[in-house]
């Protein structure tokens, strides 16, 4: 079948259903059963889409004398309301998927175009952030999933006597709120500039004195166990806590607790959309669960569904995980340990039939929060100034890696899974023709 014969303009018009499959094999002697689930095919791209050059998004200057070097980015969507976005490009080599994951300049580990509050402004390099409003946050475009990684924050303006500017820095997951400071909920871990306290679930505790201010450089070392260990933890949790069946028919049908059969696979349900003359992938975002929200606000508000709390909910922690802090070349200490697990079933996508999937974006992101013209800069490396001699030795022998290396890994992962999606899509197209 000639794929060009079915091309229509990229205008959001209905398209033929796409089919995804899962092969279930009970025995090597039995013929596999193919379960076909319909989904939408991407609308074909046009020649004009393929000829459009990749360039930085337009910047709009901020009407603030104190933020003359900072801009708002335009012509792109922001991650919100259960959806997230990333750039994509037409790819003539992919006959079924039609598109492949792309990126926007600058091509490096930096602040994300999409994963930040709309009130956060950035410099041209997307490494420094600020805001004229109250607490607003931004995450980086790469995350840490396993191993030991190091990066730094340079404090541009914060915690001065004649200035209201403040910043908070740390790490956060996809579910962490961007309209609140890092450390506000159970999905992020933060540090306060004024007191040097560490903050998690909005509960501060003493950590380092004095705090940090303009000119300081704070280093963050994040250590996580291997993904294999994390998946074993997820499977053990599901066996001990099988998902509750909500429908009467499902409750009456005896079924074994489903294992994480897809945990080794990256499932990316994404569809290309047009937004202000540009094309982006739209995906379901990971959202906060009711149990995690209940940890932050234990009291049930009138009108909300009550959360059973006969036994206090305790999120599953990752063994041998920690966040260690360095300041101006000196090791301060371990701010947090036993970080909460983030792979399914500990993160869920609302809107999907199968919520227990990993789309490759789960992990801990560098996360920075700014208040009233506070300024902070992300330094992903490879040159650092806050690390002590011991950490520099670990960086030299690659026991610890700079965050900038995660960008290269992320690009390689995107290319790999684009090819995997194309192979699956071609197979599904054959099944569709045989129906």
TrEMBL record:
Cellular component GO terms, alphabetical: Set1C/COMPASS complex
Region (Disordered): 1-30
Domain B30.2/SPRY, chain residue ranges per copy: 89-280
Biased composition (Polar residues): 18-27
SUPFAM superfamilies to which the protein is assigned, alphabetical: Concanavalin A-like lectins/glucanases
InterPro entries: ASH2, B30.2/SPRY, B30.2/SPRY_sf, ConA-like_dom_sf, SPRY_dom
Keywords: Nucleus
Protein family according to the UniProt entry: Belongs to the cclA family.
Protein's name according to its UniProt entry: B30.2/SPRY domain-containing protein
Organism the protein comes from: Babjeviella inositovora NRRL Y-12698
